[in-house]
Amino acid sequence: MSESSPVGFEPVPAEARGPPEEGPQGFWASVKEAIHGTERDLTRLPVRSAIFLLAVPMVLEMMMESVFAVVDVFFVGRLGADAVAAVGLTESLLTIIYAASAGLSIGATALVSRRIGEGDPERAARTAVQAVGLGVVLSIPVSVAGVYFARPLMTLMGGSPWVLEHGIRYTQVMLGGMGSVLLLFLINAIFRGAGDAAIAMRVLWLANAINIVLAPLLIFGVGPFPELGVMGAAVATTFGRSCGVAYQLYRLARGSGRLRLRREHLRLEPGTMLAMLRMSGAGTAQALVGTTSWVVLARIVATFGSAAVAGYTIALRIVLFALLPSWGLSNAAATMVGQSLGAGKPERGEHAVWTAGRINAVFLGSLGLLFVLAANPVVGIFTNDAAVMKEAVLALRILSASFLFYAFGMVLTQAFNGAGDTTTPTVLNICCFWLLELPLAWVLSGPLGLGPPGAFLSISVAFSVMALVAVVLFRRGTWKHRVV
Hints:
The chain has 484 residues and is mostly helical. Helices cover 78% and strands 0% of the residues. The chain has helices at residues 27-36, 47-76, 81-117, 121-148, 150-156, 161-176, 178-194, 197-220, 230-254, 270-302, 306-342, 346-373, 375-380, 386-400, 403-418, 423-445, 452-476. Helix 1 crosses helix 2, helix 7 runs parallel beside helix 9 (230-254) and helix 16 (423-445) runs antiparallel to helix 17. The longest helix is centred in the first third of the chain and has 37 residues, at 81-117. The protein starts with 26 loop residues before the first helix and ends in an 8-residue tail after the last helix.
């Protein structure tokens, strides 16, 4: 090793962007390989090829995750503004669970991807077992507490009398089924870290197919199915996710991907679990900072009535539908960073991040322009209530105007996480969401008299500032020396 090279890394200038192209491959052949699942070593492929093979199934996976939210709003929207408000307020509460799931997922992805990059599939398999064990232990108290505290939580969120009387059953089922959400996120993160993104994609395909079929049947009572109203959406979603978890466990036991779990792997390793908890603890704090801001924003918007909450909910679901595919591309960059660091090729990971950021900017920039210009027909898909539509259209336009900043911010923060540096994104979230976004939302919507648009504007400002600061911090390169 050169004395001038970073500790733990061999100098790899010739390989920073991957080896020479192995030969031309058609676009559709690459798509087929990505969806089917590639078995090639991602640390030795050209960077663009590796990103493509990871990003295609990850984007499709994230699109399927967003479908859960869109399907619920699409069908529940036919029940009225109060029903949509019940879904929106519950979803704001669920962001806390999503944060815990995301935190564990960050640790699992970083550790598994690093072990795969090091060429140590045995340690990767043992790490996966520890992650699943943590998920099972955490899911039980989360589900029980969710059912018990559903009503006081919805009261705290400012739910209307109709929501507290009729929508509470939706909340109880969704919060009671949060164990399936935690495990779904966590095990898919394991697959992504290993480079088996196609398996994670198929999990969401299965879960969503079940949800899409069951939701209208249970909401409206079609045929022999009972008419459960808004609660039917929760039952369909929870059952679909639970089936997805069952399939995940089957694929892990089958061992047909890069991770092959055997009986000897099924033992607890306190050291690995402690390392994952430390990393996941910071990751959970990072996600909690971001997601609790959505809860507070929902509470601020709730002071303006159910129409405002419903409009906020619809606009947010549409934005998530756009952003979650970009999270897929960001997750691909995170996996590339982790595996590149494991293989001793930090410059390759850096190149992958900037490449993913540029691709994301083109995609989100185009989509943001479309939403700004066509907000009315897009929102009209989900509601025909004039008051709700007015709020949703304005929210969608304000949020979409900053999509270019979101593009780079999402990729860069996930790149830090992929390297195992969960502290930097956590500090960024605290400063941009708690110290900037929330006070700004209150001032703009209340004292300055802008109403709900003031809260929407604060979101765009916070994400834009976070992206600019993330660029500066990423260029410093301290993440390249992170040991996990």
